[in-house]
Amino acid sequence: MKSEARVVVIGGGVVGASVLYHLTKSGWTDVLLIERGELTCGSTWHAAGGMHTINGDPNVAKLQQYTINLYQELERITGQSCGMHVTGGIMLAGTRERLDWLKMAKARGRYLGMELELISVEEAAKLFPLMNKRHFVGALFDPIEGHVDPWGVTQAYVKAAQAAGAEVVRHTRVLDLKARRDGSWDVITPGGNVHAEHVVNAAGLWAREVGRMVGLELPILAMEHQYLITEDIPALKGRNEQLHCIDFEGEIYTRQERGGMLLGTYERAGVPWSPITTPWDFAQSLLPNDLERIAPSLEVGFEHFPALGQVGIRKVVNGPFTFAPDGNPLVGPVRGLRNFWVACGVMAGFSQGGGVGLALSQWMVAGDPGADVWAMDVARYGDWATLGYTNAKVRENYSRRFRIRFPNEELPAARPLRTTSVYESLKAAHAVFGDYCGLEHALWFAPTAAEAREDITFHRSNAHPHVAAECRAVGEAVGLLEISSYGKFEVTGPAATEWLTHIMANRVPQVGRIALTPMLNERGKLIGDFTLCRVGAERLFLICTWAAEVYYRRWFERHPPPAGVTVRPCAMEYVGLSLAGPRARAVLQGLTRTDLSSSAFPFLSFRAMDVGMIPALVGRISFTGELGYEIWVTTEYQRALYELLSEAGRAHGLKLFGGRALNAMRIEKSFGSWAREYRPLYGPYEAGLGRFVDLNKGDFVGRAAALEEKQSGGVLRLTTFSVDAGDADASGDEPIWHDGKVVGWVTSGAYGHRVQRSLALGYIPRALATETEGFEIEIIGERRKATRAAAASYDPDGGRMRA
Ligand SMILES: Cc1cc2nc3c(=O)[nH]c(=O)nc-3n(C[C@H](O)[C@H](O)[C@H](O)COP(=O)(O)OP(=O)(O)OC[C@H]3O[C@@H](n4cnc5c(N)ncnc54)[C@H](O)[C@@H]3O)c2cc1C
Prior knowledge:
The protein is an alpha+beta fold. Helices cover 25% and strands 28% of the residues. It has 19 helices and 38 strands. A hairpin with a 2-residue loop joins strand 25 (526-536) and strand 26. It starts with a strand and ends with a helix. The model has no long low-confidence stretch (mean pLDDT 96). It binds flavin-adenine dinucleotide. Flavin-adenine dinucleotide binds at residues 10-16, 34-37, 41-44, 46-51, 173-174, 202-206, 210, 225, 227, 317, 319-321, 344, 346-351.
């Protein structure tokens, strides 16, 4: 084994092998993979090898497509068979809701270039004769599903990497990792130490243990997973390549394996394996079968596919594999550690492993993953994702693997975890809560405790009239919203503005003022949208997306502030309440000596002031598009502030409102939000944020690319549509059609209660951004007429928020 390498990849499962291959493909060939046993001896060797393109996040779906298309290339380069069987697959719907879901999956596949086809039960039965038709109402056919040989795929990656110069060492366990001052690592093994510039944790079932070597607790848990293979089935005699099939209602996947069928299930009573530590002596091992646990799923399976129940079981496999709380991989550089990368929590290694390797290698070599990988970025989790939280969420996610997640559905596991001091008061006001980064926040308010629950549906829910009333109150009088779930940073020091000028695209505001600003990467793409509030000459309060806090901190480490500047995350130190609506000024003015008239405290002002007895920071801004104030206090004052504002608001018709109403109102204003309209896929001019990019202030990160985008106009345009919707509004990821072709996709949608029409925001090609007519948005399988709006639907000139 060599003693120096540019990269050491820890783990020779399918993921580590893919990372190794992709590093060589990206031009780094001085790379070493260290495996403690044989290649594949973790979770890889006993996998069923199934692969599919569909994923809840379209960007992960794209990487899955990439993975599946890669196998042929690997076979060509290495001559090593990947054991590919591209049989095609059907997804069976047993209910109308599931059929709606399949229609939506097909629609989403359209703009990803997938050839998915909705078929009838009759057609499905012709393709998959083992099914009992009477349990199903329709199906979706995907021609590029299939399975591979896990060992063959891993070998192919490794052989291709070795041919390009990579080294692979087996039977050598990495015992420890020691950081050097220059950011490089000493990788300690019984066979000697390796000095590496970078380390990749691709240790699969042991990723937590390798993380702990560097003080990291990764939110990962392994679950036991069982599949069985039946004896030969007479009806399959002479047939091979029987389609892959997912039966959502049975929570079963199945495919032909030799003369029998392989049947796996994600049972509701899933069991974690080794919840705290993974034993090192587990290699090429399986777990004892527990058919009783999956008996309820098998019962349904044998009813839905009777031929499977009529033969014996040849083999049962029970093996563990890892999940992150949301089921997507954990990939990328880890905040707080230099040159330490992860590629773990990959629960579908044969659909995702290639895309994970590609993204990570580009990130390491070129400094950017080259794609929008937010959905699998390790930075989406913070310290709140403890082992206990992970355990609860992974078990929930496992049990729901084949269940529908409705757009308005909030999942119950690990709740309530974080609450603010107004939680009980909001609950007493019949709030229906959502969970955001583990924090309970009000979605909407029901008139009575009995009505404080929401029907989960693709259509408008029972919340609709109540959200309408909240929007009406904000538009006509005044609303009160808790805004604690916004991310916050405090930046202090003599060179604070100099640093912010360098990393943000807009100019830093004057003392007492607010500026909105995108943050761009070097490619000029959006990696954040911030509200910069200047409290003093050397003190700024930054408001942003909380879910991206770790992501931003990692970026700040890459572009560190100069000596003397402190950047402090303080999301839960400052909590907040927002007043919005034409009566907002009257409510707040009654509680403060500070003159709130528009001349003294105009739109985009920010100031420390007392509200009643409470010291607060107040910004004149509102995401609702109304006259509004965001009031920030340290936690111990929030309850008193809530009571004070509620009491003072009573005479002005104050009503509580929640996240649902806020979302509808920001869409009426065509205001984008992070991870929806603003993602690293888009440039600021494409996203309509060009007015917040100051190209004249001097150099800043992403300026050259932003200038180029401004001059060229970019490729896409964020656009607002009015939609002739039925009783379902767009919710995101629906295709946008123009003249019979899919031309774009929806990023957000809602019913705009103040303008009384259904609205959607989405990206279309710039060339179409001047067209008004000819658009359609496909909602639950129906193409609905959509009209492009040239400006925001509500108060387009912004007079109300400046009033
Ligand atoms: C029963 C079952 C069925 C499955 N079916 C499918 C399927 O149909 N399709 C699909 O896509 N996925 C399936 N999976 C999931 C799939 O197996 C995983 O996604 C995949 O194996 C993850 O690969 P990995 O490389 O991340 O982890 P692993 O395979 O666990 O690899 C990690 C490697 O790192 C090594 N290692 C760990 N620590 C060290 C150390 N300190 N030093 C050196 N080496 C170390 C380990 O020995 C191991 O070889 C299934 C899993 C199971 C259990």
